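Ticket closed. Logging final result for PspC domain protein.
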Amino acid sequence: MAAALVRPRSNRMIAGVCAGLAQHFGTTPAKMRVIFLLSCLLPGPQFLLYLGLWLFIPSEKNASRSAW
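Final structure:
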C-alpha cells in the first residue's frame, strides 16, 4: 500500500513536493528530482504544476494535526 501523499519535513529541498511524491510512489527523492528536472526540458507547464502541488499537498505537520 502506498504512503499518504504529504510533503515530509525531512528530505526537502524547496517545498518537499518531490520528496512527498517519491515517498508516495516508493522511490528516492533524488530520482524524483531528476525526473522533474528532465521533464522541465520538455514544453509544458511543469513549473506551474509544481506550484499547484505545493499548494494542494498538505505538509506532514498539518496532515498529522487533522488526523486526530
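The helical segments are 17-25, 29-39, 46-56, 60-67. No further action required.
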